[in-house]
Design a protein that fits this description.
Elements lengths: L14 H11 L3 H17 L3 E2 L4 H8 L6 H17 L1 H4 L8 H5 L4 E3 L9 E6 L11 H15 L3 H6 L1 E6 L5 H6 L2 H13 L5 E7 L5 H8 L5 H4 L2 E5 L2 H5 L22 H10 L1 H9 L1 E2 L5
Parallel strand pairs: 3-4, 4-5, 5-6
Antiparallel strand pairs: 1-7, 2-3
Helix pairs in contact: 2-3, 2-4
GO molecular function, one term: phosphatidylinositol bisphosphate binding
Organism: Anopheles dirus
Protein name: CRAL-TRIO domain-containing protein
């Protein structure tokens, strides 16, 4: 059955994708089987945490950790710690609670196509298109969190990774004020420590001079690995095209594809479709009596 434009691809990876996984992630049937067994054993020993031990679920953590089971367990522990620290924000998170932020406000979007390297491209409108009075920074984070939960189900995304495009067109003081130090720290901590996806690149576009105030908030929390993957382009889309082929970009960013005419409204049903995974994720982390 053909994949719908606003859906994710959850079928097993084909030969071409598995070759990338072998080359970049050490993934072979033998390595995968051993890593899954080892991670299951480590989880059994971790009496203070609860996570599913189903193979498809464990691959979410093993792939970004290059099939080193101990590294995958450390990531799971960091995720549990992040959930514990941000319990009021993330407890029992459900898509329907953020439905209006998805449907009525086009702040977070995902390209329907992948880029030339097979990566998912997440678009975040951080400038004039974002009204913090309508969608708070906390809601913005929850929407981003829900999207990442769905994205992690795609084998192609687990293997190829994701790219984030931050569009600051029309940024003003009202958005700068909403991007508080606490929000900045939470977001960067999540990206660096508690997001089981391969973040390959972050592109910052159309940023005005006032963006320096935003960057000053984020910069102290960014470690060298992430810093090396952040690129600033201003209004020069040709610089962006050195990383993402124009054939895979909409006209909004100097690309060959039609201008974007879709957004959260179209993607929301896809997120809601995977409510079972979201509900299950809400149960994972540190056991209650250990918190």
């Amino acid at each position: 059955m053909a994949l719908k434009p606003f859906d994710i691809e959850v079928s097993p990876p084909g030969e071409e994708l598995m070759e990338i996984a072998r080359r970049e992630l050490r993934e072979t049937p033998e390595v995968r089987a051993c890593a899954v067994d080892e991670l299951r054993a480590l989880l059994r020993e971790a009496k203070d945490m609860h996570f599913s031990d189903e193979e498809e679920f464990l691959l979410i953590f093993l792939r970004p950790c290059h099939f080193y089971a101990e590294s995958a367990l450390k990531m799971m522990r960091r995720i549990a710690e992040f959930k514990k620290t941000n319990h009021p924000l993330l407890h029992a998170l459900k898509p329907e609670e953020e439905k209006l932020a998805f449907i009525d406000h086009n702040v977070v979007n995902v390209l329907t196509n992948r880029d030339q390297k097979g990566r998912r491209v997440l678009l975040v409108n951080c400038g004039a298109a974002w009204d913090p009075k309508a969608v708070s920074s906390e809601q913005l984070f929850r929407v981003f969190f829900l999207i990442h939960l769905v994205a992690q189900l795609e084998p192609a995304t687990q293997i190829n990774g994701v790219v984030v495009v931050l569009d600051f067109d029309g940024l003003s003081l009202k958005q700068v004020k909403a991007l508080s130090p606490s929000f900045s720290r939470r977001l960067i901590t999540f990206i660096q420590d508690a997001m089981p996806l391969r973040l390959k690149e972050v592109h910052i576009l159309k940023q005005p001079y006032i963006f320096n105030m935003v960057w000053a908030l984020f910069k102290p929390f960014i470690r060298e690995k992430l810093k090396s993957r952040i690129f600033f382009h201003g209004m020069d889309m040709r610089k962006l095209h050195k990383h993402i082929d124009p054939c895979d970009l909409p006209a909004n960013y100097g690309g060959d594809r039609p201008p974007i005419n879709y957004g959260g409204k179209e993607w929301y049903p896809c997120v809601y479709n995977y409510i079972d995974h979201i509900n299950q994720w809400n149960t994972f982390g540190f056991l209650t009596n250990t918190q």
